[in-house]
Amino acid sequence: MYVKVLQETSGRYAPSRILSFDITHIFKAFQLIENNGHISRDLLCQELNLGEGSIKTLIKHLKMQDLIETSRIGTKMSVKGNRIFSHILSSLPRECVLPKCSVALGRYNYAVLLKQLSFAVNSGIEQRDAAIKMGALGATTLFYTNEKFIIPGTRYDALKREPHIRQLLIHKLRPELRDVVIIGSDDTDQRIAELATKNAALLTVMSHEKHI
């Protein structure tokens, strides 16, 4: 269970205090390392919206799980870390920034594609709550069916009156039948919208893995 490894990494090691990071921050850290090859603690602080102490603890936990390697030039993923990241990324392959629209009500909005996971979503309330947990306004979940973006539990084409948003999502995310799009929204910070969306997406992957 690859997401379970991230859960264990973000768990407390008694008698440590409550941690300020979770699996979403770890996934985002992996993305940053993948994009940069190596990454500094300063950049992790900036991009993850966490303090220096939290980043230090995060790196410590990642090393304890043998997910990263550190050197003078920065932090990079280990072979194990690469394997886990690649597996999770296969379920969350694409993402994009989204402008304000009827399905993305915040000043800042972020969309993530989940491959072939429509069966793992019920009403979308769980995804909304996962986004709120990260401090965001919430999240909207859509199914991609018959070239339409459908609200779960309905047949309603959520973007029928906004073809430009529909085309943007199709161009950026390239969804297919049974794919899911989650859009997280926030009014204060683009980073919060992004982390909220990824938290909702990872929750969905986790829910699926529990039943494998």
Describe the structure.
The protein has 212 residues and is of the alpha+beta class. The chain has two domains: 88 residues, Orthogonal Bundle (Arc Repressor Mutant, subunit A), CATH 1.10.10.10; 117 residues, 2-Layer Sandwich (Gyrase A, domain 2), CATH 3.30.1360.30. The protein has eight helices and seven strands, in the order H-H-H-H-E-E-H-E-E-H-E-E-H-E-H. The strands form two sheets. The protein has a five-stranded antiparallel sheet. A two-stranded antiparallel sheet has the order 1-2. The chain is globular, with a radius of gyration of 17 Å. The model has no long low-confidence stretch (mean pLDDT 88).
Features:
single chain; 212 residues; alpha+beta; Arc Repressor Mutant, subunit A; Gyrase A, domain 2; 2 domains; two-stranded antiparallel sheet; 45% helix; 18% strand
Looking at the structure, the CATH topology of the largest domain is: Gyrase A, domain 2
CATH architecture of the largest domain: 2-Layer Sandwich
Total domain modules:
2
State the oligomer: single chain
The general outline is: globular
Sheet with the most strands: spatial strand order: 3-4-7-5-6
CATH class division of the largest domain: Alpha Beta
- What can be said about the biggest beta sheet? 5 strands, antiparallel
Distance between the termini: 9 Å
